[in-house]
């Protein structure tokens, strides 16, 4: 057994892969490589390179994607020799989504050197700034390499050894095709955005977001986003494709609902689509914040795409013609997702066409969806033209009917005109009588207005005489002095009837406050209210009541405190305190000031005019 192990190890060491002179590239798949699956994830490079371990490296000719274990570490051993060449060679790994690739490589029996590759490392750490994982090799040399691969999902372990000129040609062609692919995405997005700006239909915005999401998803799985968008944030590589894929599903679903109008044309399928979309959104939130490993189950999207595809067929069969291109578009997209799923399930073989089938499906789907939107506009325009034609025909028929009716109406109008002329003559006679009666009524109204005016002035005269004789009761008094604003206006007018003069600086110029009629001195800024320096300063009840208390006191106290309290609905002590202020004012300045204030206020409020 030990002898067999030694012989096998010796064969692996002495039979390196030889690159022939002039051969531009060699691509080795997992089936052609010597590999070992480390299920314990504990082996180190020292363990793997030991002679006793070499027998564990074996070829797996029937290795399929479904055989890949996401929880294991894979070790690959590769011996090769490079012929003479003017330039360098490149060792390249095609799969840009592998998390970690540790390459231990020895040149011409020298010392092993370690290289860290994979999308878990910053892009700047790459020796060659290319989306794939590349190492530079010298020509005319022999190499021995141990490659350690770790990935949280299926890793396409294919190794290419190619000349630098082939690498440059391949990269330029690849980026040229990517330029066409992403250029078409941008052009279609801009086209639909311009259509939205022209006709303001929200479905074009949804479609634009969907196309941009497709571009974002393609950038993630192609490694372009890792190279250009977040080269120094490799953690995004583990999440971005899941976010982009959800964005595709979200905006394609919203656009489909809007385009097909499933709420009206297929209400049951509409509810099913919304339910699945909500469930998918909850799963996305959980994966984003709690368990990103769920993002690797990309085949889940087939569920919602299948429902939308079935809904489009259902709507189309019910007579909605714009859905025909939509059915074709989603059929192609559904086929692209299905082929990717079949590759992951190892049902169909892996090759370049199958790998890029989803990209091709995206392009064709976007073109057919654009056709669907244009077809919808064309169908709507055709329906509008037919409707306009029917309207014009109906209008012509209506004109004929109207002309016939007009002729009959003209005859009737002539007859009615004759009758109206006769009645107009009668109305003119009636109007003359009415005008005569109106003049008589106007004369009578003039006499009544004069009598009313004299009566009002007589009432005012009686009120004034009663005021002067101090015979008004509280209700009669408050009919004249009935609001706080009126009383403030009386106080202000009476107080400054001879002109304003500041109490502090004797300035005669002021600014008037329209709300409380206070005067603010323009010189010193002192603000003086109408109640300042009067017995009404600081009272907590209505000014009309205060005026009546003054009036009653000048009337030689016709009312007791209890009577005033009952009449005005006030506390007895409040009335008594204010009466004390009135008595002090009379004692200091006499009754003339208060009498003049009340007389001034009455004449100002009633605008009294005596009739002689």
What would you note in describing this structure?
Helix 9 runs antiparallel to helix 10 (323-344). The chain is elongated. The protein contains 18 helices and 14 strands. Mean pLDDT is 80; it is low at 1-14 and 608-612. The strands form 3 sheets. Strands 1, 3, 4, 5, 7, 8 and 10 form a 7-stranded mixed β-sheet that branches. Strands 2-11-6-9 form a 4-stranded antiparallel β-sheet. It has helices spanning 2-14, 45-49, 164-199, 202-222, 224-228, 240-260, 262-265, 267-289, 301-317, 323-344, 352-355, 357-468, 474-480, 484-495, 543-554, 561-568, 572-589, 592-606; strands at residues 17-18, 25-28, 34-38, 58-59, 73-82, 89-93, 100-107, 113-117, 133-137, 141-150, 159-163, 510-512, 519-521, 527-528. The protein is 58% helix and 11% strand. It is α+β, with helices and mostly antiparallel strands.
In short:
The protein is α+β, with helices and mostly antiparallel strands and 612 residues long. It is built from 18 helices and 14 strands. Strand 12 (510-512) and strand 13 (519-521) form a beta hairpin.
The quaternary organization reads as single chain
User: What percent strand?
Assistant: 5-15%
Radius of gyration: 51 Å
- What form results from the Cα inertia axes? elongated
- Sheet with the most strands, sense and barrel status: 7 strands, mixed
Helix content: 55-70%
What's the rounded overall pLDDT mean? 80
* Low-confidence residue ranges: 1-14, 608-612
Total E-strand runs? 14
Distance between the termini: 149 Å
SSE class: alpha+beta
Q: What is the helix tally?
A: 18
